[in-house]
Every structure is written in structure tokens, then in C-alpha cells.
Specification:
The protein contains 8 helices and 7 strands, in the order H-E-E-E-H-E-H-H-E-H-E-E-H-H-H. The protein is an alpha+beta fold.
Length: 239
């Protein structure tokens, strides 16, 4: 992707995330991979709803600022290492979004998982959503906590912290963030109304088989999606 276009798209996504309430103050960080060894990302200590294209910073995959392409005085996010971990583990990932969606984060605070298969759209696009162990924000604990998860999952909750979504482009990462928070909101309503009823295992298997219709070809961890942690046994299997 052209760097100028990438800057415009990243700023637009940041403003949408801020406007939707997925981040507040100077929270959150977003990035786009540019080529084999360059990453465009949001700078440290800035409101993502007020950024302009020149504010974004350009680093290599080790987090080192490149000689050009950024406004003097801007520094990479203290959580850029989390993004770089995803890029190094997943060559298919071209963008990363990290935000603090209220309801989804609330589930981690309440120690309630978001791994259940409830909404077909969620099963097809992000699959199960695991929660990484608690890690102190802005430290090396965070990338370490997600290192084993980013290889398989496109959406991960960070315990008591936030959400991380991975995409084929910045819009894909943002849409997965939206889907994750909408899923959490639906789950919250279901809990208020009396409880959550996951899809049956056979229904989940059918959803996995039709993902290609939507252009989704990346394999999901089917063993988790069809396990008792995610779906319900089919009625005939309970006899």
C-alpha cells in the first residue's frame, strides 16, 4: 500500500474508533504493515481522535524509528511491541488494532469468557475469542502474553485491559473490533435476560464449512470452536 494512502486510512480508522467509544483520552494504538520491514503506527501519548497523517510514526519490525516519514518529537507507542509480535508471527497480518471496548473488557473484569459460539457472524469472521493472561500494560509482559495466541486467533482479549484484532488490512482489523464489541454487547443482554445458549456443535461445523462463501479462507481452531467450551452438544448426542 502507498504510504500516503495508508496514513489517511489509519487516521480515519482512529477517528472512527474514538467516535464509537472504543478508546478514550490517549488510549489505544493502531498500525499498518508497509512492506517487509516497515510499520506505520499511531504515536505515543496522543488522542487518536485528533491525529493527522503527518503525526503517524514509521518504524521497522524491531520498533526502531526509520530516518524519515514521521513528525519530529513523535515516538512509537509503548505497546507497539504487541503489534510487532503479531506481524512477526503472522505474515498474513497487514494491520493491527488495539482498543479498550467497554463491554468486551467488562467481560474480562467479570472473569466471563467470550469463547462461546453464539452469533453466526462472529463464528465465521473471528471464531472463538480467547483471553490472554493479565499483563502489565506498556511492558514486555503484554507481547509475551499474546505470543502463543496470535498464531491462531484474529481477535484476543487482554485481561482487565483491552482487545487486540488482526486484519488483512486496517479496515478488516477495525471491523473485527466492531464485531467483537457488538458480540460482547449481545452477550451482556443475553445474560441479563436469563442466560446464554450457545449454538449446537453441528451448527458450528456448518458455519465453518461455509466461511469460504464470504471469502474467508484462513483456518480456525475447530477443536476449540466445537468443544464444550464453545458449543452445545446436539440434542441426539445427549440421549
Amino acid at each position: 500500500m502507498d504510504e500516503n494512502e495508508a496514513r489517511k486510512e489509519l487516521v480515519e480508522v482512529c477517528r472512527l474508533a474514538y467516535g464509537r467509544g472504543y478508546i478514550c483520552g490517549v488510549e489505544g494504538n493502531f498500525s499498518i504493515r508497509l512492506g517487509e520491514n516497515a510499520v506505520l503506527s499511531t504515536p505515543r501519548g496522543t488522542c487518536k481522535g485528533r491525529l493527522n497523517p503527518p503525526d503517524l510514526v514509521l518504524t521497522d519490525l524491531e520498533g526502531k524509528l526509520l530516518a524519515s516519514g514521521y513528525r519530529p518529537g513523535r515516538k512509537p507507542s509503548t505497546e507497539l511491541a504487541m503489534h510487532l509480535t503479531a506481524y512477526r508471527r503472522r505474515p498474513d497480518v497487514q494491520a493491527v488494532a488495539h482498543a479498550h471496548p467497554t463491554v468486551a473488557v467488562g467481560f474480562t473484569v467479570a472473569e466471563k469468557p467470550l469463547t462461546e459460539c453464539v452469533l453466526p457472524e462472529v463464528v465465521c469472521t473471528v471464531g472463538a475469542v480467547p483471553t490472554a493472561p493479565y499483563a502489565t500494560p506498556s511492558t514486555g509482559e503484554v507481547p509475551a502474553s499474546i505470543a502463543d495466541l496470535v498464531g491462531e486467533y484474529d481477535a484476543i482479549m487482554l485481561d482487565h485491559h483491552g482487545a487486540l484484532t488482526l486484519g488483512t488490512d486496517v479496515w478488516d482489523a477495525f471491523y473485527k473490533l466492531e464485531t467483537l464489541e457488538h458480540y460482547a454487547q449481545t452477550m451482556l443482554v443475553a445474560h441479563v435476560l436469563g442466560g446464554v445458549k450457545p449454538l449446537y456443535a453441528s451448527q458450528v461445523r456448518k458455519l465453518l464449512s461455509v466461511r469460504g462463501v464470504y471469502g474467508l479462507t484462513r483456518a480456525l481452531p475447530e477443536d476449540l470452536l466445537t468443544s464444550s467450551r464453545c458449543s452445545r452438544p446436539d440434542p441426539e448426542e445427549t440421549d
